[in-house]
Amino acid sequence: MAEEKPQISNGNTDDTFERDLEEMLEDGPNVNEASSTVLGGTPNRMTSSYPGSGSSYGSHYNHDMNESHLSRSYTMPPATSNVPLSSNSHSNGDFVPKSTITQTASSKFETIREWSMNTYKCTRQFLSERLGKGSKTIDLEMESQIEALRDTQRKYSRILQLARAMTNHFYHVVQTQRTMGDTFSDLAQKSPELQEEFTTNAESQRALVKNGETLLGALNFFTSSVNTLCNKTMEDTLLTVRQYEVARLEYDAYRTDVDFLSQSQKDSSSVAKLDECRRKFDEHKLKFERLRGDVNIKLKFLEENKVKVMHKQLLLFHNAISAYFSGNEAALDSTLKQFNISLKRPNAEKPSWIEQ
Questions:
Q1: What's the rounded Cα separation, in Å, for the pair 113 and 108?
Q2: Contact 280, 130 (CB under 8 A)
């Protein structure tokens, strides 16, 4: 006899399934009560029988239920360690509060904004001055001194360029004289009939080389001193001058803004802008006055230093050139001693380690 398949009512089956599911959820762990750890492991396969259901139906239904519903609720990866569920834990001290990041970003943004506004105001002031539409703060006496300093630096740079060229050319002359002296000395040994003449010329070339090296020492000292005065001392003063000019431009830019806002219509927003602009103006005014004082002091000391240095260097240059071309070896040596210039002869013996 063929086995009759039981007829199952869908309504009763659904009600029975919901009741069993509620019982299983009550028997299982309460996830909301977990405070510090997550339980891991593979869930057991759950089967249940329903009244009037066959084994094949229960197996097929359990398979579908495990894949579609229970796997989402109970299937979890195996836990290898306790995982804290608290959101206040810090990871290895690298936690950065959100408020700190916000403050840093805000500070950078404010710095960029102030720089942009300052650049805009200075550019506008510069263009208005060039076009003859803006007013400019001018100190006539200081401006004339600054222009004279720049002109002096250009002329001293030209002197330095010529002195270096002269020193370089004269160095090659001395090297040629040394080669000629060695050649004359060699020929004096190989030409008995002209030995006296070759020897005389060799000795004269050696004397010229010796005096030429002395003059080269004086020229090198001259170029070194002029280079220090031109490219270090004067340049340091001109650097302060450039800072002063930038401060003057900022001062005039904010002064123009204060004048404009003072004449505009008064309301709450304009009054606040005027107060802020006056505060900025006072800051740039103090900076401008401080740099103007620094420029005055540096210009004064530079003028005194320039006269002192150039007086010494021009006297050295004149005495050394005159003594060399007049053939006065004693006067040439005396000039170097007067200015405390020591020469390093190429053939001179090196000092001992005790002297060093």
A1: 9
A2: no
Cβ(188)–Cβ(198) under 8 Å? yes
CA distances from 225 to 45, 148, 159, 166 (A): 97, 21, 12, 16
Q: What share of the chain is helix, strand, coil (3-state, %, to 5)?
A: 75, 0, 25
Q: What pLDDT was estimated at residue 263?
A: 80
**Alpha-carbon gap, residue 354 to 49, rounded angstroms:** 109
| 140, pLDDT greater than 80 | yes
CB of 190 within 8 A of CB of 183?
Answer: no
Cβ contacts of residue 89 below 8 Å, gap of 6+? none
Asked if residues 198 and 206 have their Cβ atoms less than 8 Å apart, the reply is no
Dump pLDDT digits (tens) for 290-341. Answer: 999 999 999 999 999 999 999 999 999 999 999 999 888 899 999 888 888 8
What is the per-residue DSSP string for 265-286?
PP-HHHHHHHHHHHHHHHHHHH
Res. 258 pLDDT band, cuts 50 70 90? confident
Between 266 and 258, the more confident residue is 258
> In the predicted model, what is the mean pLDDT of residues 16-21?
62
Residues 6 or more apart whose Cβ sits within 8 Å of residue 154: none
> Could you tell me if 251 and 284 are in contact, meaning their C-beta atoms sit under 8 angstroms apart?
yes
Select the more confidently predicted residue: 164 or 17: 164
Structure tokens at 20: 């069993």
* HSE, side-chain direction, 13 A CA sphere, residue 339: 27
Structure tokens given for 72 = 């989402």
State the DSSP code for 6. P
Distance CA 280, CA 121 (A): 12
- Distance from the Cα of residue 37 to its chain's centroid: 51
| Distance in angstroms (rounded) separating the CA atoms of residues 199 and 324 | 22
Q: Measuring CA to CA, how many Å separate 134 from each of 61, 117, 121, 139, 274?
A: 91, 18, 12, 16, 20
The one-letter amino acid at 297: I
Residue 233 has pLDDT above 80, yes or no: yes
259: which DSSP letter?
H
